[in-house]
Amino acid sequence: MLTEAEVGHYRDRGYAVPANYRVPDAALAGMRRDLDRLIEANPHVSPDAMFCPHEPDHGTQGLKGDRVWLEHAGTPEILDMVEQVIGGDFLLWGTTVFGKPAHSGKETPWHQDGEYWPIRPLATCSVWIALDAATPENGCLRVIPGSHRDRRLRRHRTNDGGHLTLNQQLEADEYSEADAVDIVLAPGQISLHDIYMVHGSRPNRSPRRRAGYVLRFMPTTSHFDRQLGAEIAKRTGGAVDFATRPLYLMRGRDVCGRNELAERSPA
Ligand SMILES: O=C(O)CCC(=O)C(=O)O
Q1: Would the keyword Cell wall biogenesis/degradation be found if you checked this record's keyword annotation (predicted)?
Q2: Sorting pLDDT into bands at 50, 70 and 90, what band is 141?
């Protein structure tokens, strides 16, 4: 569980790194094996950003995923921490492997997730699980503490440069990189961040891979709006398919009553 201070840090700074939690060694070894399999099964998809690996066959990347990633997403201790920050009614609406390979791993531009997610009102908690050590050298996640506080989407532009994992990028005058903090994680450590948080990561020019598995949770007081998702996908031309992706209730009930929930069948 998050300590009271960590919950306070999440509210005040927009992110938290639980000091006392590590994915247990055996589970972490399993995730790393599953990552090797995922990469091997998808030679046509860049490991830099693999969307929805928890779906066997979904999305515009043509990624061949595996239900085992949905099992990983349901780790009870992680769900407990998510509950602490977004309450007891929430669903999983996406996952991503950001698997920055050694030497060539792509940059993630500074952005706010809320810019291109069809959730209204905007509310999520992302959980970033370090499958490898994440350090400044191999392009760890970087955040601008407190940038979520005014709950305002800043100006973004589309940048389709092939060196980026995402094509939505904050305008340079919308943040100050001098305020950035590196989220350095040992394998198995996690961080949590808010939907308005300004964040990004540098390219990986080191000899060590930097893979993270990211879980996207939202409180069911919000609506995952598929129609809006289709419009956003059209506007951004992104690799994600918001219109058809399944939504899995992880805890509680669908409070707003408008989320179309999928069955969570076993792996
Ligand atoms: O891992 C990265 O480089 C980017 C992750 C990210 O943007 C996110 O989890 O929202």
Answers
A1: no
A2: very high
